[in-house]
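In the current project phase, we have settled on a layout for protein records. A sample record is reproduced below.
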Amino acid sequence: MPDIGSPDSLRVTPLHPHFVARVEGLDLRHPLTPAQSAWVEAQMDRHAVLVFPAQDLTDEQQVAFGENFGPMEAETASVEVHRRRLGHGKMNDISNLDENGRLLAADDRRRMFALGNRLWHSDSSFKATPSKYSLLHARLIPPEGGDTEFADMRAAWDALPPRTQAKLQDLVCDHSLIFSRGLLGFGEFTPEERARFEPVPQRLVRRHPGSGRRALFLASHIGRIQGWPVPEALALIRDLQEHATQRQFVYRHAWSTHDLVMWDNRCTMHRATAFEDKEYPRDMRRVTIAGVCPSLAEAV
């Protein structure tokens, strides 16, 4: 087996003052040693987003790398799930391609639903047990656009006044894909989809188990704060999102083919940026590492 590096030989280059680093010297096509897996997890605790450039992976290799950090989420969240393009059931299809590899029609429900990825969110915050990590791999990118932005929710929390932090500390929000897609005017859910996307409660403030730091747990999936009138709740969430996505908290990743970007959903938000999706294909594939427990069961 080829030498895939040791922690001493790996190179880490910070890409932002608060978070995000590029990691070089690790070939993700090959199994990691326990020491390498622990090293990557420690870097995630510190940086929250890691960029692994030039990783020419198969679906199976991407899944195998993700499984170093916990079990995969068993269910992908989308509409028209019976019309899958990818053969691997644990992989999320983050593309503008149909099951035959052609560009989605302009009025396809899947395209309309996927436009919600342009809203700031945390993957799987709409599930009872929210996710741990996401690992997104670029297979085919458009000639321009289609970047991904990330926001550091730890730095955003640290920048809030103490009085505001005390106000937010114990709040519980309801998350659902129905709420986020409703922001874009998409409400065409089947009864089965509405049942799958029933709102779930999440803490608004979480303590990250690896770093010990507190972080806002925000997403466009939030539609209510428990015990609050809806207009007042949504006004607060809007203010917090504007605060948390100020430029000093945000990193924008311009993709190159075969980049793999790994991020911690417990302490970041992200969103896709626009590209000419009716003209150019964008084939991105994501695996998602399951969380350990509902956020309400975590220590704060």
About this structure: The chain has a mean pLDDT of 94. The chain is about 25% helix and 25% strand. Helices lie at 34-47, 59-66, 109-114, 153-158, 162-168, 177-182, 191-196, 230-244. The chain has one domain: 7-291.
